[in-house]
Amino acid sequence: MTTQQKTWSQRFESALHPAIARFNASIGFDIELIEYDLTGSVAHAKMLAKTGIISAAEGEQLVNGLEQIRREYRQGLFVPGVDAEDVHFAVEKRLTDIVGDAGKKLHTARSRNDQAGTDTRLYLRDRIAEIREQLREFQGVLLDIADRNVETLIPGYTHLQRAQPISLAHYLLAYFEMTDRDWERLGDICKRVNVSPLGCGALAGTTFPIDRHYTAELLQFDKVYANSLDGVSDRDFAIEFLAAASLIMVHLSRLSEEMILWSSHEFGFITLKDSCATGSSIMPQKKNPDVPELVRGKAGRVFGNLQALLVVVKGLPLAYNKDLQEDKEALFDTVRTVQGCLEAMTILLREGIAFNGDRLAAAVTEDFSNATDVADYLAAKGVPFREAYNLVGKVVKTCLSGGKLLKDLTLEEWKDLHPAFETDIYSAIAPQQVVAARNSYGGTGFEQVRKSLIAARDRIA
How confident is the model at residue 2, as a pLDDT? Predict the structure, then answer.
């Protein structure tokens, strides 16, 4: 059994084997580009008419037919199958059914190579705008929580060991900064996405007197590719997007990991609300952090898509090769994954967790995370910092062997260690003062955090 002859297959004596036709077809996934294929085709038809390559009447016929296909698709009346091979042939065939022979003129001065590149860029341009909006919404939730928790203290960690207490707002602002870089990065990438390959043809341009700048203007591209070979083979923009998406997932995954840890009995810093958690099928006491676990897991999908496209393009000779068909599924899956994860994490932060204030308050008083402040205290009184550092190390060792914390030492014990200690050592090592004192620019001091919150609000306004 063979498939029906294609419009491009008169060079061949027989049609494709059905299995090869299915293997070759991309209609199963590139149908997602249909609205962009129609929009690009409308612009191309208008350009053909403007330059006199086709008549004005034919141009109007093509535009009207394409808009009819758009309506049919939106109403669920146009559902092409595998015989269409790809979205481009599907549209062209349906257009010819609607307007007759004029539909066969739409492909004049155009190849599927530059057509696919145009569709993909139009698609990605819109998705980038949506993801940037989602990032801003996510950041807004971070700032809302931070506003309420400037003076809420949490343990800060290095090497996952208690290091120094910090403001919870300061912690949240760290993720604001990460996602702000994500937002900026996507905006920068969009400059390279928003370049039109339409008119590059298969690889060498065309003999027809086309106006590439006109179609670029109609499609709101900033500029056109200066080299036709580059125009049809370039997938740098897609790789850049996948790399930026991977960084978004890195940041969401890091936050997810902390939410998972913090919701455990061992940490107990947050409680998961029922709206964003699930239970166990056999352990009735369990409440599982499914949202952050899924986000953490889905990061691997996005990393894999980036790696897959890098491998696709690394050895391709110029210009277009069928391998490049593999860019679309990687892009579509990444877009869906990133958008879904951003939505889920925004909901989780906004309404799915509660910070356990009592547990956090206790956590910053039950360790030696104020040891650096003892060294700073002595340094401020003229003791060389390295000498003070070594002295405090001995103090901590002594406390550990005696089952004490620094706050438990008497003034006499402090003075035995060094005569510079006075009663103000107790206020200096109190958690609130430890945090408040770190008032250097970008630090966790409450004054700095409030300034950072104002600046962050201004950035997303």
Answer: 42
183-237 tens-digit pLDDT: 999 999 999 999 999 999 999 999 999 999 999 999 999 999 999 999 999 999 9
Query: What is the mean pLDDT of the segment spanning 161-167?
Result: 95
Alpha-carbon span 373 to 273, nearest angstrom: 37
- 330-352 per-position pLDDT tens digit: 999 999 999 999 999 999 999 99
Contact yes or no for 51/30 (Cβ under 8 A): no
Kindly report, residue by residue over 257-280, the tens digit of the pLDDT. 999 999 999 999 999 998 888 877
Instruction: Centre a 10 Å sphere on the Cβ of residue 265 and count the other Cβ atoms it contains.
Output: 5
- Higher-pLDDT residue of 74 and 366 is 74
User: Would you call 253 a catalytic residue per the annotation?
Assistant: no
Rounded Cα distance between 368 and 356, Å, is 21
Catalytic member of 14, 159, 265, 401: 159
Choosing from 9, 55, 264, 280, which is the catalytic residue?
280
Are the C-beta atoms of 302 and 249 separated by less than 8 Å? yes
pTM above 0.90, yes or no: yes
Instruction: For residues 272 and 288, give the distance between their C-alpha atoms in angstroms, rounded to a whole number.
Output: 8
For residue 178, pLDDT beyond 60: yes
Contact between residue 218 and residue 103 where contact means Cβ atoms under 8 Å apart: no
Give catalytic status of residue 14 as yes or no: no
For 58, 94, 196, 365, the CA distances from 102, given in Å and listed in that order, are: 6, 12, 25, 80
